[in-house]
Fold this protein.
Amino acid sequence: MHEPKISHLAAEDPALADLIESEAQRQHDKLRMIASENYVSSAVLEATGTVLTNKYSEGYAGKRYYEGQQLIDPIESLAVERAKAVFGAEHANVQPYSGSPANLAIYLAFLQPGDTVMSMSLAHGGHLTHGSPVSITGKWFRPVHYGVEPETGRVDMSKVRELALAERPKLIIAGGTAIPRTIDFPAFAEIAAEVGAILMADIAHIAGLIAGGAHPSPIGLADVVTTTTHKTLRGPRGAMIMAKAEHATVVDKAVFPGLQGGPHNHTTAGIAVALHEAAQPSFKGYAHQIVANASALAVALNERGFDLVSGGTDNHLILIDLTSKGIPGKPAAKALDAAGIELNFNGVPFDTRRPFDPSGIRLGTAALTTRGLTEAQMPQVAEWMDQTVTAAVKEDTAALDRIAGEVRDLLAAYPMPGYTA
């Protein structure tokens, strides 16, 4: 059952409580490999379910527009100081509601409509808020994009420099949502300095790896750093902006009053807890284990004939082109879900298929690592994936049921935060 218990909810709204209990069991019984998901600790769950949700707190600590902030201010200040300590940042803002508003705040802080923004193409691993034409960031600003090389699946930084010199962007974004390789923040910083651009690092996917020392940090190199607080950082669904001290005022004004009203204080508390956890020595082991698991899984998938974009991974994320397997990403993802393996269909660089029916799948190892799985289990995970894709091509639903049962049997030995059997 769900832990902490939801007995009051069950009494008040049993239909909703049943759905939540079922979701808790679903999360327990599946290999959760969506790269942007994880399990938060019971302490984070408790913090986000407190009476802090009752309080409005427009403004910042010491400068609020509502009274009654005597205890809210120290909670937010605690989260801010912990963020600065964990990441080594000069300034931190923990109020953004999620990653997309955090990114939009950077546009508001530093750009005017029509200004040029340079970022990784969405089709090559970027993010909607990095200038996609369907996003406000692509409609109100002028996006130019770099991408990966077809032969290597990696970014050629010399070409990034050439594009920056030609286009003279006011903002350069490093990072994205489907990048399996180490991001060269020093090279991006040199390019931004050369063209006089603000450098923004979007570390939403790799924040936990950076906090744990398993990926190089952009702090001190980038002018501003945005991140979600879940994913590998293993906090609640929220976001943060970290910045050089010289940009603190303009960033804070962009968040409030520029884009938002009152912060979600219960989320702020959950972020504070997650940052406290990230400061513990055990978190470093967790971060490095995520990368070790992803590396081992990549090797096992390669051995089974899967075509990995860039040939492998340096972080938590693996991007796979399924063209050679004779099945598109969407039906493969649905078959894998039926087999107890949860991930998402995803476009791959130079994909010839439509975005909602792409050639690839994206997966990550953060949640598996939180459950306690190690390199030892990764060959079995790869084998189940291979069997599932083969079964999907053959429309063998019985095989999917069998694999789902085997997955449940394995996971029964690995406790899940937020659930008790």
